[in-house]
Amino acid sequence: MQPATTDDPRTDDLRVVPAQEAPFADIEAVFGTKGDPAHCWCQWYKIPGSNWRSVGDDALRGRLEAQLATSDTGPGLLAYDGDTPVGWCAVEPRANLVRLPHSRIVAGGTPDPDFDDPGIWAVSCFVVPRAYRKRGVGGALAGAAVAGKDDRLIGALIGGALGAGGGYLIGMQVGNKNDKDDAEKKDDAIKSSQQAETNPATAQQAKNAKTADINDDGFVTLDEVAALEAAGLKDKDIIHKLQITQQVFELTPQQEQYLREHNVTDTVIEAMRGMNRASEGSGQLASDKMSGSERISKKGQ
């Protein structure tokens, strides 16, 4: 698996918020007055095809505004660069998207064929104005969307730096002793992911490490977990070294595959999914059942 790094310039002051918390004027600014966004307002999947042509642009805009005013489950996220709105991501329960079951690609490819299940969410649209493209806005939105509400801050941070999947990065400390700002954390995240690919941790280093953060850089990467397994540690010992990092782990399917290919057991992978969540309550994250989602992780806040 290749890390999702990029040479494009990053936007250093990105933040992502639920669209319900943003002024609707900011959403209008992102959608603009021309092109598909201004003629769809993320209603395409919500209106049966037979009714689509009977609904005009103003009505579509009104539908989105009403959905934002009445829903606490979606329908989207808004990205800001400082105080400027720069991007939109539509994410909400898949049951709201009445056209999806009629898509051959979606219906034929999902492992969860019950389209009425409100626990399965879908990301259906991204809107990034041309002036703000190639700056990590899409990655920040994707990372925030699939990380769920409790992980959204770090989802946006790592997503903006590395893409939604986080590359080799699967764990990150928040509020660490260095108290770095977001731009510094992004730089460190990129360096950590690149080092994991070019200079992976060894079994000998894993034997001597106190935690799963073998190089003590504030991040846990795939190669470090693989090195713990290569060192011959028992599952319970690997789990303990992961636990004491105080990080919350959410793995993409590709990252889980990487770990299995390096002989990390399902026992460890399952333990990582629910690790250090005592303070997060019993509710599922929005991404827990998101088909094909790519996930990242953070230390619990």
Q: Topology, please?
A:
Blueprint: E1 14-18, H1 24-31, H2 35-38, H3 49-52, H4 57-70, E2 76-81, E3 84-93, H5 104-109, E4 121-127, H6 137-147, H7 152-162, E5 169-172, H8 182-198, H9 203-208, E6 219-221, H10 222-230, H11 235-243, E7 247-248, H12 253-261, H13 266-273, E8 298-299
Antiparallel strand pairs: 1-2, 2-3, 3-4, 5-6, 7-8
Structure write-up:
With 301 residues, this protein is of the alpha+beta class. It has two domains: 14-162, Aminopeptidase (3-Layer(aba) Sandwich); 169-299, no CATH class. Helices cover 39% and strands 13% of the residues. It is built from 13 helices and eight strands. Strands 1-2-3-4 form a four-stranded antiparallel beta sheet, with helices on both faces. Strands 5-6 form a two-stranded antiparallel sheet. Mean pLDDT is 77; it is low at 1-11, 174-178 and 278-301.
Main sheet summary: 4 strands, antiparallel
Helix content, binned percent: 25-40%
Apparent shape: elongated
* Poorly predicted regions: 1-11, 174-178, 278-301
Keywords, separated by commas or semicolons:
four-stranded antiparallel β-sheet; single chain; Aminopeptidase; 2 domains; two-stranded antiparallel ribbon; 13% strand; elongated
What's a quick, concise take on this entry?
It is built from 13 helices and 8 strands. By secondary structure, the chain is α+β, with helices and mostly antiparallel strands.
